[in-house]
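Forum > Structural Biology > Help requests

Title: Can anyone predict the 3D structure of Alanine racemase?

Hi all, first post here. I have the sequence for Alanine racemase but no way to get a structure on my laptop. I'd be grateful if someone could post the structure tokens.
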Amino acid sequence: MTRPIRATIDLNSLKANYLYAKQMSGYNAQALAVVKADAYGHGAIATAKALEEEADGFAVACIEEALQLRQANIKAPVVLLEGFFSAEELDAINHHDLQPLIHSNKQIEILRKHPPKTPFTVWLKLDTGMHRLGFSPDQFIARYSELTQLPYIKQVICTSHFACADEPDHPLNKKQLDCFSQTLKTLDNPPASLANSPAILAMPESHYQWLRPGIMLYGSSPFAHNHNQAAALKPVMTLTAELIAIKHLAAGETIGYGATYNVSKPLLMGVVSIGYGDGYPRYISEGTPVVINGIRCPIVGRVSMDMITVDLSSYPQARIGDSVELWGNQLSVNEVATYANTISYELLTKITQRVPRHYIW
Ligand SMILES: *Cc1c(COP(=O)(O)O)cnc(C)c1O
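Reply #1:
Sure, ran it for you. Structure tokens for Alanine racemase below:
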């Protein structure tokens, strides 16, 4: 390792979080491990390999992500959460035994024009109120009946997605759940999948046959507030860099680009080897903590491409070479996300390829 920065990924914790998702259903449901966007920045292949024995299947956003898994010799079912975008993808879907989601008439038209050779499973999406992808209940019932009659469709799994499951008391949750269960009832309760991480943790009535845990696998709570069920999740990624310089600055000096930080009294300042070129957000607030030897030190001045600067007043013993945790075991990615006005999902997926992933068991 040259530049001192790394994302340490604890695969044991990942596994524990996956099993915890299944435990939430009393092990009655199967679970698709959602590994889209390079497994939320954790590395899709390493993540899928680590879960290979346990996982009932994987979910990704697109065929490129699915092929990555197949090329790594992952044999488990792989679901394409947005299905296919054009007819060209159908051959590969069939050849690699992928399970596309179907959410539009256009996709069904494509399918009828290019009937696949080997029968396959599809996931049919009902729009229960998110109003992004999926069929209205009436359309859904009609499409379901058509699809189940086609000789090349092995199975149709009914699915939908929550808009507000991270706010367990939001009235839309019940509305979506009712819409889903009533539509399924009309169809004689076929296999179904509704729950993302927050619903797995907070809405047992949404579990059905297939869970779809994403963020919880990576040990980050899907909730903005403390939640009992989420407390057991184990952080998977610990993002660390190092102190590469320490300076005493006099009152009246400024720090960094734009000279935005004015030193008001003598300041011990440290320079840390991470910046927005690594995916650490440039727009994060001043005062965001980093952890050095267990002690929190706030960011001062602007985030640069390769460095940040921190106030070492709370830890004057700091030495060049000390490890600096940006998030992980001592500082949750959720807390850091609040300083960046975003959610952990975005911080994790934005860590760039420049940051080496280091896998531990
Ligand atoms: C990303 C995604 C999930 C996983 O969501 P989390 O909140 O990360 O658990 C589940 N289902 C669908 C359709 C998704 O797109």
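The CA atoms of residues 28 and 209 lie 7 Å apart. The pocket of pyridoxal-5'-phosphate is lined by residues 34, 36, 81, 161, 196-197, 212-216, 222 (CB under 6 Å).
Shout if anything looks off.
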